[in-house]
Design a protein that fits this description.
The complex is a heterodimer of chains A (about 110) and B (about 120). Chain A has strands at about 10-15, 20-25, 30-40, 45-50, 55, 60-65, 70-75, 85-90, 105-110. Helices cover about 0% and strands about 45% of the residues of chain A. Chain A is globular and about 40 Å long. Chain A has no helices and 9 strands. Chain A starts with 8 loop residues before the first strand and ends with a strand. With about 110 residues, chain A is mainly beta. In chain B, the strands form 2 sheets. In chain B, strands 2, 4, 5, 6, 9, 10 and 11 form a 7-stranded mixed beta sheet that branches. In chain B, strands 1-3-8-7 form a 4-stranded antiparallel beta sheet, with no helix packed on it. In chain B, a hairpin with a 6-residue loop joins β9 and β10 (about 105). The termini of chain B are far apart. The chains are: A mainly beta (about 110), B mainly beta (about 120). The interface of A and B includes residues 42, 87, 95 and 104 of A.
């Protein structure tokens, strides 16, 4: 699976949009971009994933650049409960299931 | 839907004893379950992949005789830390993939193991 690069930490004001970047310049054509987050002392939570089109669900939006070398996770109206470590993971969708390779992620801190 | 539970949520044990951690998929059948370990201020590291009815596949550097994994049913996998030592103290997290949709992994809440 391709490597990803994320800033180690970010701050965002409560109520504002949080934009979390991820670089994955070596991504291959069959690799998807996944985002998970981990609130302190809890298991990770799936947020969203995409291949090349922008995606939106009830939690967030995922914007993938046209060359697919980077992406941005957007939390439209951040709340204090969104404070967590956010992981960007690039992986191939296989017929079976593979374990995830977590990088260091971005520690997002939502400020009141 | 897609809830994964772990039991216990935390455990403290003496060095040399064995500890069993359970991972259950509560509302779906999980063909594959995964076990991760997370040390303080570090990221999750995959330990092993567990398929129902077959032997687990361990990641490089993980001792299969020390970390015994059993996936006896489509809703239950167990991790037993044998002869635990203080360096085994960690946050152990399981995840499960649904049979229908392999896209998502659903994670349990984790088990905090402290070995004295």
């Amino acid at each position: 699976d391709a490597k990803t690069t994320q800033p180690p930490s970010m701050d965002c004001a409560e109520g504002r949009a949080a934009n979390l970047p991820c670089n994955h310049s070596t991504i291959s054509g069959n690799e998807y971009v996944y985002w998970y987050r981990q609130i302190h002392s809890q298991g990770p939570q799936y947020i969203i994933h995409g291949l090349k089109n922008n995606e939106t669900n009830e939690m967030a939006s995922l914007i993938i650049t046209e060359d697919r070398k980077s992406s941005t996770l957007i939390l439209p109206h951040a709340t204090l409960r969104d404070t967590a470590v956010y992981y960007c993971i690039v992986r191939v969708l296989r017929g079976g299931a593979d374990g995830l390779t977590f990088g260091k992620g971005t520690h997002l801190i939502i400020q009141p | 839907g897609a809830v994964v539970s772990q039991h216990p949520s935390w455990v403290i044990c003496k060095s040399g004893t064995s500890v069993k951690i359970e991972c259950r998929s509560l509302d779906f059948q999980a063909t594959t379950m995964f076990w991760y370990r997370q040390f303080p201020k570090q990221s999750l590291m995959l330990m092993a992949t567990s398929n129902e009815g077959s032997k687990a596949t361990y990641e490089q550097g993980v001792e299969k005789d020390k970390f015994l994994i059993n996936h006896a049913s489509l809703t239950l996998s167990t991790l037993t830390v044998t002869s635990a030592h203080p360096e085994d103290s960690s946050f152990y997290i399981c995840s499960a993939s649904r049979q229908i949709n392999y896209n998502e992994q659903f994670f349990g809440p984790g088990t905090r193991l402290t070995v004295l």
